[in-house]
């Protein structure tokens, strides 16, 4: 998956929870990604956060710490 | 009718519903029936058959043939039993010398104007005129043949009353010379189908049945066949019966086309299917069907079907036919090889919503148990995955809340993003019946669908919103309901989470959500939105039915939640006549979702994080089940391009044609090392496949389908699989080639495993289905015979959850280069990618996909009716013919995606629903321009498809 697409998808999730207060939104984003994203997508996202993807919503970046660590296949 | 060959009793008049009962005596036998029942029907319930010609139990009686006369003590004359209601204490005599004489006289008249060619007639042995002549003891006809309708020539001249047979419809003929003017066909078309295509021209002896057009094909007839089924003679007759003769046995099974899930009697002669007749006992369809289910089954024996397994090392090679063993061994070796090299998660599969529950269950079991991952998805990804997410979040269960009978109790029906007369025709007929009885209709759809204005149906409000603004419109309706105090507060207080409700109510009440404020976005006049919202909230039982026009958007899940919010706020949930009803596309899309086809969910919608649920399967299957969600279809394709996903088993889906952004799908498939396609035909996806496993049709296997009302219907094998193996057997062999050791001998055993492991299916078994005909899940100890209406006492999730639905415009925007919005849909005669229907007589109605464009948009582009146009978006372009239509608003164009030559999905974008990745089919910014031929993509695609379909002659 291209980094742009992954960032786009993550940002869409952040937008859907935009109305929630910061903390609840960050938790909701992390939960949603844990529930629906395959480990390689999560790993990719975490790499992007690590590398400091500029287009990524700050709340997704904040959620990174709460996202379940993917194990290697 | 096939009354005495394969009994399916005709009670003569429709059943009546009443709390009051009436007791009477017929020929000395006492019988008790609901008030309003006809004497004819009461007699039939006793097993006493009163002769009849113009009455049949699918339509209201008109009392015209006078064959059903009876004598009633204390009443003068001989009333017609079909139009005489029962009364308490009535004493009826059905066989007296007086009525016998009268009946014989009636028959004599009929027969005098009927050709006596019974022995060579297609209805021989299946004709009620014949039966009645026998029943009344008609022995001679005293009238001389005078003026009549059946002789081609009279007195050396052409008979002016003779009308030639009309064979224009691909499936049935109309032979006016055999018509007895009973009007059963006219009434069936009106009352059962609701199309009003037939009328009566002339009166008395001159009365003729007419379509008002040159022939059936050129008329308003939608070929549902209700009139053919109702006709007592050979006047309206299936062509298959004309060709093959009458059937000799019937097997009840379920239509394999749409989510209505109609029950049929497959009428057979040996292993040949003579005709399909919708079953009166079918609880979804109540004896009705559409053209697809009744007539379009010819694909099952089409010469294009591939019957031998085939393999190839790479997709530029021709196919090589092999034995089943070789194909399974080849696939197993490839899949295991990929996993060794690229890891356990490098392969996956797609289940089919056209296959049975049992087959779907096995495919996900193959992936979870044998592949060892959760990389399983299904075509619901591209249609109703937002329904799953949205309804689970708000109500607690991923399914519609009602049965189809519920519509008989609705007072207001709101249809959003669905076109039932084309997509769910039998439900549409049932809805139209209710509308003719006075229920009110609101349609929210960018297009003026047929229901907005049809014969005897007129929507109270049509809200023609701009594609992509569903959330804004529904939130505006909620605004009106909250701001004008139309909420049902007791219901909300008792049944819903109050904090969430207050948060939501505050949100929708904001001025920026008012119809006036959102008019510029949605394009719908504010006053119409207000009126529609008031009607929905205050018009009595209000039911919402929605389709893919809701889900296939970047805010699909949000829209589903907005719908649930509306229903909860007005208390329209939890009883007959109301509810939230997704109209499911394919026959078993509900079932495939129920059976654990999603990469994050085990059967019964239990998340893979759920230790207890996983534990159940781990114990039974003796493996560790991964607790990591797998890849969804779009993710699989992305991962394939990225090099981490290398092999896929696709059962009964054509993702290349049905999924968005065709080029992206093609590059994903092309990047894989082993693509296995298991299907009836060499579909478009198979052009990229390394293994082809022939599939079987619904006529060739046992199993169950679950329709849009959660109804589990039996599918019964009526003929042996032409390819040798039913689909569930193919999956089992593949699993065993990979070391699974499965030993299922019959789908009933698979259902037993489903019931044992899935709480909502705990009570389901083939024995129960045999006894009940069908059941709606949940079916368990709490509801041993199933659940017609959900959320009756409380919501499945406990308290209903209101969710704030902020409108987020899609990023697919119009601009100077792409100024129009394309939305897609389907039509009655074709089904999905058309692989089946294109291989039947249905092609007479839809030979190609066309582009609907508003005359204004056409004019500014110099486009006239029938011109070839180029349809281009940011993703790609294609060409097709244009048709000018004011059903679409200016700025909106519309097409279907039934034909591979068009490949409408070359044009659709890669955007998808935020929660589920359900693609945004319903909104694409496009430009339309005149052109003179197919696009480069179409040409090169056709060339590649030809090359990819080569098959080497079998090496014997
Ligand atoms: S086939 Fe259906 S639509 Fe056509 S005339 Fe008969 S009842 Fe009407
Ligand atoms: S076509 Fe058949 S159903 Fe219609 S009026 Fe004639 S005999 Fe009756
Ligand atoms: S396609 Fe749908 S409506 Fe038509 S017969 Fe089949 S299940 Fe019924
Ligand atoms: S059946 Fe009653 S009048 Fe024809």
From TrEMBL, chain A:
Q: Which InterPro entries match?
A: Formate_DH_dsu
Give the protein name, as stated in the record: Formate dehydrogenase delta subunit
What is the species of this protein? Rhodovulum marinum
UniProtKB/TrEMBL annotation, chain B:
One GO process term, biological-process aspect: formate metabolic process
Q: Name one GO molecular function term.
A: formate dehydrogenase (NAD+) activity
Signal sequence span is none
What does the UniProt keyword field contain? 2Fe-2S, 4Fe-4S, Iron, Iron-sulfur, Metal-binding, Oxidoreductase, Repeat
Q: Does the keyword Membrane apply?
A: no
Q: Which residues form the 4Fe-4S Mo/W bis-MGD-type domain?
A: 248-304
Domain 4Fe-4S ferredoxin-type per the UniProt entry, residue ranges = 170-201, 212-241
The record places domain 2Fe-2S ferredoxin-type at 20-98
- Family affiliation: Belongs to the complex I 75 kDa subunit family. In the C-terminal section; belongs to the prokaryotic molybdopterin-containing oxidoreductase family.
Report what the protein is called. Answer: Formate dehydrogenase alpha subunit
Origin species, per record, is Rhodovulum marinum
């Amino acid at each position: 998956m291209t980094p742009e697409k992954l960032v786009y998808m993550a940002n869409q999730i952040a937008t859907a929870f935009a109305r929630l207060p910061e903390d609840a939104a960050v938790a909701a984003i992390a939960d949603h990604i844990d529930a629906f994203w395959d480990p390689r997508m999560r790993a990719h996202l975490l790499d992007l956060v690590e590398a400091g993807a500029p287009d990524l919503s700050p709340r997704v970046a904040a959620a990174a710490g709460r996202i379940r660590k993917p194990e290697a296949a | 009718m096939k009354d005495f060959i394969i009994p399916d009793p005709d009670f003569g008049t429709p059943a009546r519903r009443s709390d009051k009962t009436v007791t009477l005596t017929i020929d000395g036998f006492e019988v008790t029936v609901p008030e309003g029942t006809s004497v004819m029907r009461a007699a039939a319930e006793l097993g006493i058959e009163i002769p009849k010609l113009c009455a049949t139990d699918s339509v209201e009686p008109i009392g015209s043939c006078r064959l059903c006369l009876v004598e009633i003590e204390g009443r003068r004359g001989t009333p017609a039993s079909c139009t005489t209601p029962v009364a308490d204490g009535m004493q009826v005599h059905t066989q007296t010398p007086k009525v016998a004489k009268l009946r014989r006289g009636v028959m004599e008249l009929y027969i005098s104007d009927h050709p006596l060619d019974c022995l060579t007639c297609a209805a021989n042995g299946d004709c009620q005129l014949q039966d009645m002549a026998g029943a009344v003891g008609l022995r001679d006809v005293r009238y001389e043949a005078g003026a009549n309708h059946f002789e081609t020539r009279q007195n050396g001249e052409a008979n002016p009353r003779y009308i030639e047979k009309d064979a224009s419809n691909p499936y049935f003929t109309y032979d006016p010379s055999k018509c007895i003017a009973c009007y059963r066909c006219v009434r069936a078309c009106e009352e059962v189908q609701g199309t009003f295509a037939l009328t009566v021209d002339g009166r008395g002896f001159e009365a003729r049945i007419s379509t008002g057009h040159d022939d059936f094909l050129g008329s308003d007839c939608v070929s549902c066949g209700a009139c053919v089924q109702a006709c007592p003679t050979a006047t309206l007759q299936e062509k298959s019966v004309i060709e093959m003769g009458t059937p000799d046995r019937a097997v009840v099974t379920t239509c394999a086309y749409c989510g209505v899930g109609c029950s049929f009697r497959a009428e057979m002669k040996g292993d040949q299917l003579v005709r399909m007749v919708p079953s009166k006992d079918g609880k979804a369809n109540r004896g009705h069907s559409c053209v697809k289910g009744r007539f379009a089954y010819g694909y099952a024996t089409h010469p294009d079907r591939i019957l031998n397994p085939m393999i190839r090392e790479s997709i530029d090679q021709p196919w090589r036919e092999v034995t089943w063993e070789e194909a399974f061994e080849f696939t197993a070796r490839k899949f295991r090889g990929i996993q060794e090299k690229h890891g356990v998660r490098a392969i996956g599969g797609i289940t089919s919503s056209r296959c049975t529950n049992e087959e779907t269950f096995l495919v996900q079991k193959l992936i979870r148990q044998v592949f060892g991952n959760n990389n399983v998805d299904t075509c619901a990804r591209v249609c109703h995955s937002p329904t799953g997410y949205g309804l689970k979040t708000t109500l607690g269960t991923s399914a519609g809340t009602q049965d189809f009978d519920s519509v008989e109790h609705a007072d207001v029906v709101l249809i959003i993003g669905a076109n039932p007369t084309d997509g769910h025709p039998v439900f549409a007929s049932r809805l139209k019946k209710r509308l003719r009885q006075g229920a009110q209709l609101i349609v929210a759809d960018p297009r003026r669908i047929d229901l907005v204005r049809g014969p005897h149906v007129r929507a109270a409000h049509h809200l023609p919103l701009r594609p992509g603004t569903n959330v804004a419109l529904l939130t505006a309706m909620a605004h009106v309901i909250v701001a004008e105090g139309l909420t049902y507060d007791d219901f909300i207080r008792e049944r819903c989470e109050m904090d969430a409700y207050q948060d939501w109510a505050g949100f929708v009440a904001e001025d920026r959500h008012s119809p006036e404020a959102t008019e510029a976005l949605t394009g719908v006049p504010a006053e119409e939105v207000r009126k529609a919202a008031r009607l929905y909230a205050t018009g009595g039982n209000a039911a919402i039915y929605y389709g893919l026009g809701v889900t296939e958007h970047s805010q699909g899940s949000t829209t589903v939640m907005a719908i649930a919010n509306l229903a909860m706020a007005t208390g329209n949930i939890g009883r007959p006549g109301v509810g939230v009803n997704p109209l499911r596309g394919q026959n078993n899309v509900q079932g495939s979702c129920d059976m654990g086809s999603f990469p994050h969910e085990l059967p019964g919608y239990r998340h893979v994080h759920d230790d207890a649920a996983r534990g159940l399967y781990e114990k039974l299957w003796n493996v560790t089940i991964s607790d990591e969600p797998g890849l969804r279809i779009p993710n699989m394709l992305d991962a394939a391009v990225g090099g981490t996903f290398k092999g896929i088993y696709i059962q009964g889906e054509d993702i290349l044609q049905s999924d968005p952004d065709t080029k992206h799908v093609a590059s994903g498939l092309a990047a894989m090392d082993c693509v296995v396609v298991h299907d009836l035909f060499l579909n478009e996806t198979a052009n990229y496949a390394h293994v082809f496993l022939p599939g079987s049709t619904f006529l060739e296997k046992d199993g169950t389908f679950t329709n849009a009302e959660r109804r589990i219907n039996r599918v019964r094998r009526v003929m042996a699989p032409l390819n040798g193996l039913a689909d569930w057997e193919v999956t089992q062999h593949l699993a065993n080639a990979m070391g699974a050791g499965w030993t299922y001998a019959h789908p009933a055993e698979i259902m037993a495993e489903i019931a044992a492991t899935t709480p909502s299916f705990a009570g389901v078994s083939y024995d129960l289905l045999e006894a009940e005909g069908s059941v709606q899940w949940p079916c368990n100890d709490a509801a041993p015979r199933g659940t017609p209406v959900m959320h009756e006492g409380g919501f499945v999730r406990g308290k209903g959850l209101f969710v704030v639905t902020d409108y987020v415009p899609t990023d697919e925007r119009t601009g100077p280069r792409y100024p129009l919005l394309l939305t897609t849909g389907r039509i009655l005669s074709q089904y999905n990618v058309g692989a089946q229907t294109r291989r039947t007589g249905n092609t007479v109605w839809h030979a190609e996909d066309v582009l609907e464009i508003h005359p204004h948009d056409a004019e500014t582009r110099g486009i006239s009716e029938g011109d070839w146009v180029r349809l281009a978006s940011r993703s790609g372009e294609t060409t097709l013919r244009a048709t000018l239509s004011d059903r679409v608003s200016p700025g909106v164009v519309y097409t279907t995606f039934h034909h591979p030559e068009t490949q409408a999905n070359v044009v659709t974008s890669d955007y998808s629903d935020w929660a589920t990745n359900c693609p945004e089919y319903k909104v694409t910014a496009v430009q339309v321009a005149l052109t003179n031929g197919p696009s480069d993509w179409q040409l090169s695609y056709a060339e590649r498809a030809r090359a990819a379909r080569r098959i080497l002659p079998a090496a014997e």
